[in-house]
Each structure stands twice: as C-alpha cells, then as structure tokens.
Amino acid sequence: MQKVLAFHEVAQVLDEIELEDAKKRLLHEHLSSNQTASFESYPESLLCSFDWYDVNSPSVDTHRILIYLDRDDFFIFCKEQDIKDKMQKPMEHENESNEQMLHHFLFILLARDMDRIDDHEDLIIEAENAALSGYHHGYMSKILEYRKEILRLKRYYTQLQMICDGLIDNENGLISEDGLVHFNILHNRVDRCHAAVLNLQDHVTQMREAYQAQIDIEQNELMKIFTLITALFLPLTLMVGWYGMNFTHMPELGSSWGYPVFIIVSGTVSVALLLYFKKKRWF
User: Fold this and answer.
1) Among 52, 89, 241, 269, which residue's CB has the most CB atoms within a 10 Å radius?
2) Closest Cα partner for 75 from 45, 54, 55, 52?
3) Beta strand extents in the chain (DSSP E only)
4) Which is more confident, 69 or 81?
5) Are 58 and 147 in contact (CB under 8 A)?
6) Cα angle 64-8-5, degrees, rounded to a multiple of 5
C-alpha cells in the first residue's frame, strides 16, 4: 500500500490497513515524539523524518515529513493538508515498487533545487555589484536575509544527506542493488546542493566582511578629512590665541598695517600647509 497521509488521519487510517501491531506501535511512537532529522532502520522496515523546506517559497515555514517503508507498504505523513496535496503529486505514478516510489518522491523534491540555488547566487552577486557601485541602502539587511535563507537550506540538505546515507547503508536489505545505484545518484545530487549552499554561505560571509571593510575605509577617509582640517587650522588657532593676549606693549597692536599683515600671514600659512599636504598626497 502506498499513501500520503496527514498526521491527524494516522489513527483512523492505521486501523483500516493491514499492518502488524508492532509496526503500528512504532509509527505511533515516532509520530508522537516530534523527532525531526532522524533515520531509524529496523529488521523489516525503516522510518525517517525531516523538516521539508519548499525552496521555491522561502516565506513558507518548514514542515515535518515522516516516511515509513517496508516490503509491503510505503507511507508519507504530513502535518498540513496543503502540504499533503503537494506530497501527493510525486505519488501519482502507478506500478512502482516501494523503493522506486521513495526514490521518485525524493527526486521530485530535489528536481529544481539547484536552479533555485543558482537564483540565490544571482541575487547575491547583484546585491554585491550594487554595493560596489556605491548603493548601500539596505545592504546589511539583505546580507542578514541571505544568511538566514542559506542557513535554512544548509539545515535542509544536511537532513537529506543523513537520510540518503541511511538508505545507502541498507542495513536491513530493503533496498535492492539497482535501488542502491539510484539512491547513490540521488545522494550525489544532495551533496552538490549542499556544497553549493556552503559556497553561498562563504560568499555571503565575504560580502559582509567586504562591506565592513568598505565602511571602515569610508570612516577612515572621513577621519582623514577631519584630521587635515584640524592640522590646517591649528597654526591659525595658535596665531589668534597669541594675538588675543591683552598685553600693553605689543607693537603690532598700534600699527595700521597689523590687521592686513595678520590676514596675509594667515593666508600664506594656510596655502603653504595645503601645498604640503598635496605634495605628501594626504588628500
């Protein structure tokens, strides 16, 4: 028997199908444990569960999927009805064995994942190019959004890797030799998706470091300007402070040329400092 069931349907459905009491108890225990990212191999059956993440709908939360497989039955358990409807589509193939149905189900889940990962890479490169061109609005929030999405993808593919590892180990011999070949191919696809996600994670990390370095450079340039302005006006401040002293015998105070000469000297000092800074390439 091959079925896709919602969690709330489990109790009534298990009573209607011909399944050993030990296997029914096993299913009930696993469903009630709320355990995710697990792979359990038993002498005549296997149970695995994972948090399914629809990579084409990043705004949708993850959903727990439980898979039961033995020589006679293949069940997929979902929490929500709409997820059940989505899971039903890969199960519409007839005349397939249980292991073929499991392979087909996992294959359909991964069918367009690499395309979606490539789309993420394009978005990241586009945001990086925009930042390099000087447009920084919302850049850090985009980086955080990309990191969150990549972490979800990484967690998702890590779970699928664990399931594929358990299927390939085939401790109970439920998978045929031909089936192992197909699951090896599926495992390679999951590995490629996982490796691509890790590359994206490194890319986003480099984006954040580059952005922080760019901010530091801009701050350094700003501090450099303030430092040059301070150095430019420091001699003038000294001169103003010097001639602001109220001593009686200061010869320049009684001269009619004192004020113009002070202005000329101040301008000369400013120009000389600017030329010196330019020569040293400080601006």
Assistant:
1) 52
2) 45
3) 2-6, 38-42, 45-52, 63-70, 74-78
4) 69
5) no
6) 65
pLDDT (tens digit per residue) in 178-203: 888 888 888 898 899 899 888 888 88
The confidence score (pLDDT) of residue 18 equals: 57
pLDDT bin (cut points 50, 70, 90) of residue 19 is: low
Residue 24 one-letter amino acid:
K
Q: Do 186 and 60 belong to one domain? A: yes
Q: Please name which of 79, 91, 74, 81 lies closest in space to residue 23, comparing C-alpha atoms.
A: 74
Instruction: Report the alpha-carbon distance of residue 234 to residue 270 in Å, rounded.
Output: 10
Residues written for the chain: 283
Say yes or no: 207 and 242 in one domain.
no
Is residue 10 located within the same domain as residue 109? yes
70: tokens are 């033995």
**CATH code for the domain in which residue 133 is found:** 1.20.58.340
The reply to whether 145 and 244 lie within a common domain is no
- Work out the pLDDT band at 36, boundaries 50, 70, 90: low
Residue 60 sits in the same domain as residue 105: yes
Quick check: helix, strand or coil at residue 173? Answer: coil
Among candidate residues 196, 234, 197, 204, the one with its CA nearest the CA of residue 144: 204
pTM: 0.68
Which one has a higher pLDDT value, 199 or 17? 199
Among 216, 233, 266, the domain boundary falls at 216
